[in-house]
Amino acid sequence: MKRAHFSTTRVSIPGMTIALSLLSPALPLLAASAARADGPPAIVQVFGGQRGTTSLAYSPDGQTIASGAFDATIKLWDTADGRLKRTLMTPVQPASLAYSPDGSALLSGHWDGVIRIWSPTDGALVRELPGHFSGVLGLALTPDGQTLVSSGADRTVRVWDWPNGSPLRTLTGHMDYVYGLASSPDGVHVASGSNDKTIRIWRISDGALIRTLNGHTSYVTGVAYSPDGSRLYSCSLDRSLRTWQISNGQLLRNTSLGTCSATALGVCDGGAAVAVTACHDVQIYQTSDGALLRTLPHADFVRTLAVSAAGDRLATVCKTVASGTIHEWNLNSGDLIHSFVGHSDHVPAVAFDPTADTVWTGSHDQTVRSWDVGSGQQLSAIDEEWGVNSLSVAPDGTRVAVADFLSRIVLRDPSDGQIQATISGFGEVYDVEYSASGALLAAGMASGHVRVFDPSGGALLQTFGPLDGPVFDVEFSPDDALLAAGASCGCGELPSDFGPVAVWRLSDGVEIFRRDAHVDATTSVAFSPDGALLASVGEDDALRLWRVATGEPVRTAHAGAAQAGVLFTADGRSLLTTCADGTIRVWRTADLGLRTTYDQETAGAWALARSADGALFAYSRDDASVVVAQTPTFCDAVDTNCDGSFNGFDVDPFVELLTGGAGPCAPCAGDVNGDGSVDGGDIDGFVDALLGAG
What we know:
Oligomer: single chain
């Protein structure tokens, strides 16, 4: 499978329906039976998240989690099934989020000092509230929903009549950033925690400072009221969780978090517990006596958390910029409702099982996993001794070949993960690929060689090369007659600035052609369905087509960013490429014209794979997630009678289609004029195309 970097939920982007996404970086899978009152609660859901997720908020009904991230987007996630409901594009990175009490509005504070108000139902921007001179770090609404309080990096706390867009007053006194913010349950007071190590209690109606709480020895990062308003909880980088009596400012309890600083907290279980971030964990303490109830382990430092209004669910996100995965936990029963748990490190391998609706992924986290395409649920997880470079599934689905960091190809039974055979002793393997018949297994080597093995016993059958550098991708022709490879540059005996592409004939080992194809490296190659063309992409942003029989270059197109993966659609009419800039591009094979660009990604898109029937394709992403999508189709309004050319004879089959006739090309001879339906209006559009007018 192609080298690369991949979460699950259903989302849509123009022209593509996501069938499975988000095989996310996450935690070890927790068994439902193990999560009870005396053990850690189970994960309810894992969402794909965004790179560098920094803020979270539950909707009042608990049905949606909003997340904001470094990529200047806000994403709304369905807590029932993990589906991405909507993405809000913002001009500046959000730093804080809050829902109105009735759920009719989502408020976001941004690093440009502006508070933005959104309609969650349609994603419309309703209003902007400028006022802060720097980032808006905290948002809190009074229970009646009429008053908004915000805090910022400008050291101020501000009060707003937000439904009317009116600033009411500015509260000053803090000497540093104000991160923590909470409204009292009766809406009379607001508490603010600052980097100046103090907590201040203000009266909202007139901005009067009621009390200052001193005691923390470092930044105060979070504050929260008890449900009855009598107590205030605070957390700090001084590694403590503190409980205060509001009426007199007395410190009731100072709970040590050991060696861990805290960045966020929330009250849960009707006020019976407080959850606080602590390094790689979220620790949940009983408020009555400060006893530690349970610990929720994470794969990295926990950046922030949010508690549902009912207090029964907790959402967390780790600080890893490349991850941003949101984990949601059931704090009551511990039952495992859904699990879309995925990889925790770079995923360089993805492949479809030709015999089942299954996707296989391999990761540097030393696991190989399989996923159900329809539901997105993990079907199996195989622990590898070492990280995975590549994998390929045999055409009959009986074996999975895995290339690992230990320079081995491990052949496993996908049903139970048992090792059937191991091929080793040839050096590091960057790519493995089964032939269409399953009789051969090719390996691209770090040495620049391509080796062909008998997958049944692991015997070495042929060796090709070496090429000038490590072989990143190998590909069999559809008829198993040829083998192609793309490699990096400058690592062989004769260093070169170009990454080569080569094609060999398997019957006698003859090299058909070798070309210096791409500057720096050739990252991926693919045969057309008829085997006549070879496509290659590289780090020089170029997509090139080669005539296989002669090695003649046919044409070149440029994507504007390094390209990592390429494949032909099943009908051969289009090519898909993935780019380091996060775009997925679709090209017309006939002239390499750019059909469309999907640019919803904010990070690199890498390896590509296609399902056996061609209906789906998968690609990997920088955040260690995988997306599986429907392959886009296009109507070219050419050669409807399949005679190999576009001419006047193509009109009759098209008319037959319109009048109910069906020919071999009928599926792609439809909506010529692009009005969304196949009807009489398409005849004119087709004639226009024949005459060169459309």
